[in-house]
Amino acid sequence: TGDCTLGATQTHGYAGSFHEYYDKYGQDYFFKNIRSIFEQDDFTLINLECVLSNATERVEKTWNLKGKPEYVGIMTDSSVEGASLGNNHTFDYGQQGLDDTREVLNKAGIIFGFNDHVDTYTTKDGIKIGIVSASQLSADETHANYIRDGIAELREEGADLVIACCHWGIEGDHYPNDYQQKLAHQVIDWGADLLVGTHPHVLQGMELYNGKMICYSLGNFCFGGNKNPADKNTSIYQQAFTLINGELQPGIDAQIIPCTLSSVSSYNDFRPTVASGEKAQEICNLMNTYSQNCSNIEIDGLGKLHVN
């Protein structure tokens, strides 16, 4: 999925905030409408765009995103196995906020990628999945190298599949820019099997490049950072990988599950919900539009990806 802020900004009052919903409804509330989807797969990965910490010393910026350490139960209760931390809110509460988040995730058994820290998860069938994640908001070669070197490290560790996560692009823009596309192709050429992008807070298109999928942005998902985003469209991206004797087989078996980031349209109740009917068709149509300039794929009315 895309951006998950399991918390709130420092500007939010308590009323109507993520914190109030947690206190009222508990950790089971937030992912209830999509939990069965997460439970049925082998590995669920989210972009955790906040710290989970009780730290109070925040970095001076417009929005600092923070949830309480116990909010990690939202993830463990809903079969979330992995988190991308390579984003522009990882240091919102300084080194202490990051250290606390790492500790919380480690104790919960959730793997995470962040810069030169890569991690692997082994499925019940023995498939080793690796993740690498870094913010790419500036054309900083160091951060790109985290992805390049992380992929190589994961392969050395015996990862059967490698998922790269890049935080990039322009907020509110549905189309990837030239920098995103150039770097995305490099990441695939470096050996990633799937690239998942985040940061624009809206859906962007997808591309098939050299037999691998690129999701430029999956938008917001469970997003406590905004009480009422104007664009509530989002999706879950699903891909099935087939390995025979340890060898990844060619071909794309993937779909999007159109969702809204809230179960109501008039405000954000922080409860992602699978879309149906006209709304689901609208999201599929939009994703085809967003993808048309960079892709040879088509998404049908059920969300299934077809290679043209």
Characterization of the model:
This protein has a 6-stranded mixed beta sheet. It is α/β, with parallel strands linked by helices and 308 residues long. The mean pLDDT is 96. The radius of gyration is 18 Å and the shape is globular. It has 7 helices and 21 strands.
For this entry, give a set of tags.
308 residues, alpha/beta, 6-stranded mixed beta sheet, 5-stranded parallel beta sheet, 7 helices, 21 strands, 25% helix
Kindly summarize this structure in a few lines.
With 308 residues, this protein is α/β, with parallel strands linked by helices.
Q: What is the CA–CA distance across the termini? A: 25 Å
- The percent range for strand residues is 25-35%
Main beta sheet strand tally, sense and closure: 6 strands, mixed
Mean pLDDT metric: 96
User: Tally the helices: what do you get?
Assistant: 7
Query: What is the H/E order?
Result: EEHHEEEHEHEEEHEHEEEEEEEEEHEE
What's the topology here?
Layout: E1 3-5, E2 8-9, H1 18-25, H2 35-40, E3 45-48, E4 51-52, E5 65-67, H3 72-76, E6 82-84, H4 94-108, E7 111-113, E8 119-122, E9 128-135, H5 141-156, E10 161-167, H6 178-189, E11 194-198, E12 206-209, E13 212-215, E14 220-223, E15 233-240, E16 243-244, E17 247-248, E18 253-260, E19 273-274, H7 277-291, E20 297-299, E21 305-307
Parallel strand pairs: 1-3, 1-14, 3-6, 4-5, 6-7, 9-10, 10-11, 11-13
Antiparallel strand pairs: 2-5, 8-9, 12-13, 15-18, 16-17, 18-19, 20-21
